[in-house]
């Protein structure tokens, strides 16, 4: 029967192994995101904006919170994306003082192309899993993200 010290040591090794595989997966995912962003002449933050707004319209303040950016940085980011024709701004119909940000038609097309390309490039990793395992990984990753700081 293992001692409590041996049990703790085994748990520490398992945790270290988990951290290692999370980091390796993160690096592989970041390589894909960097590639897609570069191919579309976007920064990683711009790619994130397209992904976040792909299925929603947000207030500037909400988008800034998603990205962890301050107001001035957010304004510059949106200005540049708007000049490229990727985003639009409009007053919030429910609160005329608030400004909403949403994808333009070109931005929606770019977001969809980016999403498809990311899925295709991640397929060598995700495609090795059964549908049931893919679903389990999705649930586990969502649970991990819900506990993240920030």
H-E string: HHEHHEEHH
SS field, number of helical segments:
6
Would you count the extended β strands for me?
3
Which shape, going by the Cα principal axes? Answer: elongated
Cross-sheet strand order for the largest sheet: 1-3-2
Percentage of residues in helical conformation: over 70%
Radius of gyration: 20 Å
Low-confidence stretches: none
Q: Determine the strand fraction and express it as a percent band.
A: 5-15%
Mean pLDDT: 90
| Largest beta-sheet details | 3 strands, antiparallel
Structural class: mainly alpha
The N- to C-terminal Cα distance equals 41 Å
Topology record:
Elements: H1 4-39, H2 44-53, E1 58-59, H3 60-67, H4 71-83, E2 87-91, E3 99-103, H5 105-126, H6 131-146
Antiparallel strand pairs: 1-3, 2-3
């Amino acid at each position: 029967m293992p001692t409590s010290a041996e049990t703790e040591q085994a748990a520490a090794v398992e945790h270290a192994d988990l951290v290692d595989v999370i980091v390796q997966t993160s690096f592989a995912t970041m390589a894909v995101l960097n590639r897609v962003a570069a191919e579309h002449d976007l920064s990683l933050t711009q790619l994130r904006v397209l992904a976040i707004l792909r299925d929603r319209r947000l207030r500037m303040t909400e988008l800034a919170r998603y990205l962890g950016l301050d107001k001035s940085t957010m304004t510059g980011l949106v200005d540049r994306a708007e000049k490229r024709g990727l985003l639009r701004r409009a007053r919030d119909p429910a609160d005329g003082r608030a400004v909403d940000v949403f994808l333009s038609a070109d931005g929606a097309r770019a977001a969809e192309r980016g999403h498809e390309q990311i899925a295709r490039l991640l397929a060598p990793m995700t495609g090795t899993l059964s549908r049931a395992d893919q679903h389990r990984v999705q649930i586990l990753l969502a649970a991990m993200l819900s506990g993240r700081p920030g």
